[in-house]
Design goal:
It is a single chain. The protein is an alpha+beta fold. About 35% of the residues lie in helices and about 25% in strands. The strands form 3 sheets. It has a 5-stranded mixed beta sheet with strand order 4-3-9-8-7, with no helix packed on it. Helix 1 packs across helix 4 and helix 4 packs antiparallel against helix 5. The two termini are about 35 Å apart.
């Protein structure tokens, strides 16, 4: 565990800037680094690099699943996820992944059977005065769904602690070094970029081993696929 302040100072020193939070001269550097770090964390989370924020929720529904801060939503989340990584419907003993589509395609399809298409949008709830996420499917029959998404991450301040694994913290620090090197036009920015990309590859491999359920290559076809295709309209792991 490390504080945001500590990580920022480490990254600044790595690119040749000796700064401390609280000094007038160096406030410009540290504030800029904080913004870069928060943006970086958001990017890494959207790109599936922060495994700790991955969440898998099983719910029942037919054509609508909602995600929001109020208990009345299907899934309660204070911060609405920006996107959905995967939506799968239970068929027999396994989950069959639905195809992401736009609402026009969903409305043009039959919505009386089991779902095989879905879309996701963030929309305002005027009554509750908040934003919420809506998963909309072309299903008309209730079923069990597995919803996979990355929980949103709030903006950090200097005194906050980063409650991530050492691997994730190191990835954030490597990325911040690269971002700062580019921002301040450091001559060795390419070196920091290479180190960041190498670390991203390592993290991607580790996350794949820890969370195989979201990888299509691990969904092998079986002699039951024809039967499942008839029931669900499609086979797609």
């Amino acid at each position: 565990m490390i504080t945001v302040n500590g990580l920022i100072i480490n990254a600044l020193k790595a690119v040749g800037i000796d700064a401390e939070v609280g000094t007038d001269v160096d406030a410009l550097y540290t504030n800029a680094a904080l913004d870069e770090m928060n943006n970086l964390i958001t990017e890494l989370n959207l790109d599936d690099f922060i495994f700790e924020r991955r969440k898998e929720v099983v719910v029942r529904g037919s054509n609508k699943i909602t995600i929001g801060p109020d208990p009345s939503y299907t899934i309660q989340e204070d911060c609405v996820p920006i996107n959905i990584k995967a939506l799968s419907r239970k068929v027999g003993l396994r989950y069959t992944r639905l195809i992401k589509a736009d609402k026009a395609r969903i409305y043009s399809s039959s919505r009386t059977g089991l779902a095989y298409l879905y879309t996701y949008n963030i929309i305002p709830d005027e009554e509750k005065r908040c934003m919420y996420g809506e998963i909309f499917t072309n299903g008309g029959i209730p079923a069990e769904y597995l919803v996979i998404y990355n929980q949103s991450i709030p903006k950090y301040g200097f005194d906050d602690e980063l409650w991530f694994s050492d691997m994730t913290v190191n990835l954030i620090e490597e990325g911040l070094k690269y971002k700062l090197a580019v921002r301040y036009k450091m001559p060795d920015a390419q070196v920091f970029e290479n180190e960041f990309n190498n670390y991203k590859r390592l993290v991607r491999e580790a996350n794949g081993q820890n969370n195989p359920m979201t990888y299509d290559s691990l969904c092998d076809e079986s002699y039951l696929d024809g039967y499942y295709n008839v029931l669900g309209g499609t086979y797609m792991c």
